[in-house]
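User: I've been trying to design a sequence by hand for this structure and keep getting stuck. Would you show me what you'd pick, starting by listing the structure so we're on the same page?

Assistant: Good idea, let's start from the same input. This is the structure you sent:
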């Protein structure tokens, strides 16, 4: 099936109840047929629902539909995008290990990898997404994951998938892409050799800022990269916490299976069934919305590029943008999503422009149907030092825009009057 059809139908067979809409299974637990049925489920002799912290029929549809859109083998939904990123790391790394992270990532990812996981004994090493060859000198025998974004937030850079994945494969290291900004409508990293994809479902997936959630997707045949790989010994040895189960010996996607049976079981960052239902509604219109977000963002980027008070515009859909060739190489139909940023002279000037807008709302979110304006240096990246801000591509005068579904002419006029105020 093609993308638009998958977005509406994948993962759901309405024949069970005859409902056109996916039902909300608003339940904590499930009734077993008998004691043996319960035992079989816990021993994985049968597959089925045990407890909503681990699985839920509504969430199952969301996971299957999202995996189909990304071209993956399986997915696991989480309570937030940050928990999805944490699970991607925690599923492979332990004390003494290291992960390689692009400098140009969301501020929350920087603090998670630079501070929080450090207390777990996991080191983060940072590379410049513009210089992926730096990875060669960073990888050692304890490197477990390379993490980067398809479109960086808020510097709006595009990753060179081919170079990153080629280096990773040569060293037997897994790669993970945060594809939140691009969405599978614009880019499918798994098609370009990436092993894992994470998303904040709170953004374009829901599309209206209605729910917090995340999702982690595993590529087809990832078992081939894990089986016999000493870096990931715990996938190849009996798991004492689950009856001695060996994940790479099962006919199921091993990465997602372990994330579910170990991390979701023990850490419990599970989505509510109602939130999963909201994401399903969002997916039905995601292909249509992403085309409109991208078209409007390009028109606004072209306006900003011509404005005398704007120092620089970051939007890879522009032919003048240095990332444009990578858009042509990796993104569908030349779309570049609805996120852009531009630079003006200094922090105070940037904050005054944000305050002067009327349609744009000052909000620390992206991917909404309503347009959003953010000053990252004082909000999402406020915890970073001046040196870290520069390394992340977030100068003091940077303004981030998430372009919504309003008429682009109205948005351009709003920015014009704010810039001239």
């Amino acid at each position: 099936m093609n993308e638009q059809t998958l977005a509406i139908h994948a993962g759901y067979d309405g024949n069970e109840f005859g409902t056109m809409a996916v039902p909300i299974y608003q339940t904590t637990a499930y009734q077993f047929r008998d004691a043996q049925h319960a035992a079989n489920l816990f021993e994985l002799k049968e597959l089925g629902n045990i407890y909503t912290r681990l699985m839920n029929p509504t969430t199952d549809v969301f996971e299957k539909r999202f995996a189909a859109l990304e071209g993956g083998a399986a997915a696991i939904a989480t309570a937030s995008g940050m928990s999805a990123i944490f699970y991607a790391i925690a599923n492979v790394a332990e004390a003494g290990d290291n992960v390689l992270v692009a400098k140009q990532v969301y501020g929350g990812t920087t603090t998670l990898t630079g501070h929080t996981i450090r207390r777990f004994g996991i080191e983060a090493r940072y590379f410049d997404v513009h210089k992926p060859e730096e990875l060669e000198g960073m990888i050692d025998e304890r490197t477990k994951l390379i993490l980067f974004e398809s479109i960086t937030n808020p510097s709006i850079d595009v990753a060179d998938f081919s170079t990153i994945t080629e280096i990773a494969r040569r060293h037997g290291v897994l790669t993970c892409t945060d594809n939140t900004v691009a969405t599978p409508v614009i880019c499918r990293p798994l098609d370009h050799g990436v092993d894992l994809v994470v998303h904040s479902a709170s953004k374009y997936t829901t599309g209206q800022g209605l729910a917090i959630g995340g999702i982690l997707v595993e590529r087809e045949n990832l078992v081939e990269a894990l089986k016999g790989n000493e870096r990931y010994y715990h996938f190849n040895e009996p798991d004492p916490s689950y009856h001695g189960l060996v994940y790479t010996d099962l006919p199921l996607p091993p990465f997602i299976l372990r994330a579910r049976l170990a991390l979701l079981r023990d850490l419990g960052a599970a989505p509510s069934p109602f939130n999963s239902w909201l994401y399903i509604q969002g997916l039905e219109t995601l292909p249509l919305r992403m085309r409109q977000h991208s078209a409007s963002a390009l028109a606004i980027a072209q306006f900003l590029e011509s404005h005398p008070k704007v120092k620089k515009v970051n939007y890879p859909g522009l032919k003048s943008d240095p990332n444009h060739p990578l858009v042509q190489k990796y993104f569908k139909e030349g779309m570049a999503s609805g996120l852009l940023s531009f630079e003006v002279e200094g922090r105070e000037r940037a904050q005054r422009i944000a305050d002067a807008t009327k349609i744009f709302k000052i909000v620390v979110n992206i991917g909404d149907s309503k347009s959003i304006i953010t000053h990252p240096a004082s909000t999402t990246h406020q915890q970073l030092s001046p040196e870290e801000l520069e390394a992340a591509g977030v100068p003091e005068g940077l303004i981030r825009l998430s372009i919504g579904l309003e008429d682009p002419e109205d948005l351009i006029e709003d920015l014009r009057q704010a810039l001239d105020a």
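That's my pick for every position. To get oriented when you compare it with your attempt: The longest strand covers residues 143-149. The first helix runs from residue 3 to 9.
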